[in-house]
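Per reviewer request, we include the raw input and output of the structure prediction for the construct analysed in the revised manuscript.
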Amino acid sequence: MKYTLIFALVLGLAAGASAQSSHGKKITEDGAVPAPELVAKLGDKSEMSTKIVGTVESVCKVKGCWMKVKTADGQTMRVTFKDYGFFVPKDIAGKQVVFEGVAKQTTTPVSELKHYAEDAGKSKAEIAKITEPEKAVTFVADGVIVK
């Protein structure tokens, strides 16, 4: 009986350690492109539907309403969630995620960049340094798997 209880406890811990959580539309990992390859795959297109796998660099500290995923050369890509319809946990920095939706080449205005900086908990001095719009690849996800 004692060994059965210990076995059940170990099995439960192992299952919890490998658990995944899904947010938004249910998706699978099949066919996901590594985040560092996205810019090359997008090329000159203004937008493209795709599925990406990558590592979370940071998450909105207010409610998990966006995340930044590492791309090539130490850069990051902001991922928001379709229609503000779901959020991700605020403690997933460093975790691998799979997300599906639309990648876009965008220009983010200064006001929006400052809002994101506030959400990330940046200081007033850091926020004041934001004076130029940002051209970047962004992503609107329909669904996210946190591994």
